[in-house]
Amino acid sequence: MENQDDFDLIEDYLEGLLDDKAARTVEDRLANDASFASVFRKHQAAHTILKIGAGIHLKKKLSSRTDFSQTPQSHKVYRLRWYWALAAGLALVLLIAGFRYGKFRYSDENLVKYYTGAYAGNSLRGVSDSDTSRWVQAMQAYEARNYEQAIHLFKSIGTSDIHFMESQLLLGNALLLTRNPGAAVLPLRQIADSHDSRFSTTAEWYLLLALVGNHQETEAMKLADKLASDKNHPYQKSAAHVRRDLRSLFR
Question: I need a surface site. Which of 81, 94, 113, 197 has the fewest CB within 10 A?
Fold first, then answer.
């Protein structure tokens, strides 16, 4: 539901009055709060209309002070200039709105959110109901999307456990899904560097996203180049898309 605080926040954002931290807060809410995003779009449309209306009002006000007893040709030129001025103003508004959207769309945080999905590997199909191992508990939490509990349980699985490698991969994925890419880098790098054919290629893909989310752009670009140039890599096309986005003019 819209409230006065949100109204003031949106208006200040559209007018460019917020500092970087406050602007990021608005952009985070746009990405995660559908209700707020809906209100924002309505205000943005109204804001644009008001700017156009203000230009038209100013035109009328100035026109009333102008002596139009001039020649019809000069009157036509005057009107034409005003139309061009209004068109330029509208174009500027749209350009600023497009630029802001582009900065939001291609931000590190939004790229990670856009490309990260739940791991589609192992599942609990065929596991006995009596099995209460840490691995099963962790997978139950993960499949129920209780990622915080899953993270805690995956961290507790030791190196001697037969599921250790996959648990580290899932740990990294769960950390990405909970918007903690910095913590995801270490376990994902460990699996990516292991060259374990079962999990290393998926770990490389998640590691790329973790590096982007952790603002390690130089290393992320190197890894994106590597994966995108490997035609046999299962995430080759996805890595090429990330590389394209990292090169966007909006970044």
Answer: 197
The string of pLDDT tens digits covering residues 73-132 is 555 555 667 667 777 777 777 777 666 766 666 788 888 888 888 777 655 444 444 456
Long-range contacts of 129-136 (CB under 8 A, 24+ apart): 134/161, 135/161, 135/163, 135/167
Per DSSP, helices labelled H in the chain are 4-14, 20-32, 34-64, 72-105, 108-115, 134-143, 147-155, 164-177, 181-194, 200-213, 217-228, 236-246
Nearest-angstrom CA–CA distance, 16 and 47: 12
Q: DSSP letter for 146, please.
A: -
Q: How far is CA 108 from the centre of its chain?
A: 7
Tell me if 249 sits within 8 A of 106, measured CB to CB: no
What is the C-alpha to C-alpha distance for residues 134 and 31, in angstroms, rounded to an integer? 34
